[in-house]
Write a structure and sequence with these properties.
Number of helices of chain A: 6
Structural class of chain B: mainly alpha
Strand content of chain A: under 5%
Distance between the termini of chain B: 55 Å
Largest interface: A-B, 90 and 72 residues
Largest sheet of chain B: none
Strand content of chain B: under 5%
Helix content of chain B: over 70%
Oligomer: heterodimer
Radius of gyration of chain B: 17 Å
Helix content of chain A: over 70%
Structural class of chain A: mainly alpha
Radius of gyration of chain A: 21 Å
Shape of chain B: elongated
């Protein structure tokens, strides 16, 4: 087992453990803070996978914007959630079975695929992933249309969120 | 070197945990937290398929970026809805939001 594999296992355990805390912990502020740990672990995975731009975007957008938005929402609504008994539904064990079955089904399906144990080819010596990604995002032959649609979606979500949360009084 | 299977198993496990959170949490904000976990699992899959496939094709990373944009807008609108509902009905428990149940 190489050092990289041990590092991956540690990061993976941190991700899964903190994700379990996100879905089970009682205090929602703590759940949002555990979500930050999970998101940071995923950013480390992107760095291992040589997707450096995505690792930075994960930290800036997910941790810097989305997780903070969650903490704000919890603080604006948590008044009565503190001592309201259990945070999970009555049928949570059934949901746990469904989740385990999903995992088992995914694992069984992936194991029958012949590329499952593939290992990565080395990157070419002068490979510049960020430049390639930027070119792919604005090139008319590649992804300029989805990119523009995504920006329109963000604008629409911004307007919609302001409209929905606006206090008319 | 890490085989592709490790990433896929990790992301399947993360997806299942997120699914469990979505199905069994009572609080609407916590349900959105579970959805974030599932979206992250999808992103791990996209990026690892990019890395283990042809790195000259940037489709995997571009899709991951679009998932970021969708996740950001989903959270903004979702939390705005939760806050609006909280202001009108004074609850964020999903079971009690049964206005449209018949």
């Amino acid at each position: 087992m190489t050092a990289m594999q041990i590092f991956f296992l540690i990061v993976g355990l941190i991700i899964l453990g903190s994700a379990l805390m996100v879905v089970t912990t009682g205090n929602l502020i703590h759940a949002a803070l555990w979500l930050i740990v999970t998101l940071f672990g995923v950013a480390v995975l992107y760095a291992i996978l040589n997707a450096s731009f995505l690792a930075v975007v994960q930290v800036v957008v997910y941790i810097g914007a989305i997780a903070i938005l969650f903490i704000f929402a919890v603080m604006l609504t948590h008044k009565e959630m503190r001592d309201r008994g259990p945070q999970l539904n009555n049928g949570w064990w059934l949901n746990a079975v469904i989740a385990l079955l999903t995992f088992g089904g995914l694992f069984w399906m992936l194991r029958s695929w012949n590329g499952f144990l593939k290992s990565a080819a080395d990157l070419p010596a002068s490979y510049d992933g960020v430049a390639q990604l930027g070119r792919a995002l604005i090139s008319p032959d590649a992804f300029v249309l989805p990119f523009e649609v995504a920006s329109v979606l963000l604008l629409a979500a911004l307007v919609g969120a302001v409209y929905i949360a606006f206090n008319r009084k | 070197m890490i085989p592709l299977s490790w990433y896929l198993i990790l992301s399947a496990a993360l997806f299942s945990i997120g699914l469990f959170g979505v199905l069994s949490r009572k609080n609407a904000v916590a349900i959105l937290l579970g959805i974030e976990l599932m979206l992250n699992a999808v992103n791990i899959n996209l990026v690892s398929f990019w890395r283990y496939g042809d790195v000259a094709q940037m489709a995997g990373q571009v899709f991951a970026i679009i998932v970021f944009a969708v996740a950001a807008s989903e959270v903004a609108v979702g939390l705005a809805l939760v806050i609006s509902v909280y202001r009108r009905r004074n609850t964020v428990i999903a079971d009690e939001l049964d206005l449209m149940k018949w």
